[in-house]
Amino acid sequence: MILAVPECNVAEVTICAPANVNELFELPVRIGQINRTVLLIFLAAFIVMAVLYFAYRRPRLVPSKFQAAVDALVAFIRDEVAVGIIGPEGIKYAPYLLALFLFVLVGNLFEITPLVNFPITSRIALPAFLAILTWVVFVVAGIRKQGLAYFGHLLWPPGVPTALKPLVGVIELVSTLLVRPFSLAVRLFANLVAGHVMLVLLLVSGVAFIAAIPEVGAKGLFGFAWFGLGLAIWVFELLVTVLQAYIFTLLSAVYIQTSLHPEH
To answer: What is the DSSP letter of 218?
Structure first.
């Protein structure tokens, strides 16, 4: 049983909910204003830098397996996402898209990492910041390419029948400047929160039922089913973490492309 009350008797209750939800994100020892989420954000950034550093600090003509794996990932983001979506101009956005993909991927993978089990992208502030960063990139890219005509193309979109341009223009302006960053952030946040909550409920419930077998008898055997289902969801979440990082990066590339080529 999970009991959410200000005072909890651990001798009688299997799992006690914290009195303050912030306890879930705090470190055992407080370090200034750094909490668990901030620490994991820095750790994710460090892991990304370390992967790229150790892959390319001494590049070989015949690459090692590690360098070959990183090369394949870099080539995929550069050729299939940056250049493949944006076009030849996409090569200069490849470093940003690569950093974005790797950071989101590592942050997502924390969800299924033992002893961590907490995706930093399940805190809305981080997806929101990354979405705003992408918003700044594609708006600045559009202004640099088209000047103030960038906003003119949004309000009076080319290729649309004249009678529909006022309506489509308002929709396009709101969609580009407001809806895109909002949907980009919420899509990542919602998927990671849903998966994280599902994993926690299944695995913790399974362990709780199994631990209670001496008291509840055969009913506690249901814990093995819950725990097994949780492990199956764990494998599924591995796919979700990679897919959501790819989708976030892909949409960022699409938004940059539409800013550079409004006729498309």
So the answer is: G
Residue 72 · residue 60 · CB < 8 Å: no
Segment among 11-15, 28-32, 49-53, 167-171 with least mean pLDDT: 11-15
Say if CB 182 and CB 249 are below 8 A apart. no
| Domains of the chain by residue range | 2-260
Q: What integer pLDDT is reported at residue 3 of this predicted model? A: 44
pLDDT 10s digits, 86-97: 999 999 999 999
HSE-CB of 239 using CA atoms within 13 angstroms: 4
- Amino acid identity for residue 90 in this structure: G
Residue 132 tokens, joined? 């705003």
Q: What is the pLDDT of residue 2?
A: 44
**Secondary structure (3-state) at 27:** coil
**Cα radius of gyration rounded to whole Å, the chain:** 23
* Helix locations, 93-211, DSSP H: 94-109, 125-146, 149-155, 165-174, 180-211
What's this model's pTM, rounded to 2 decimal places? Answer: 0.83
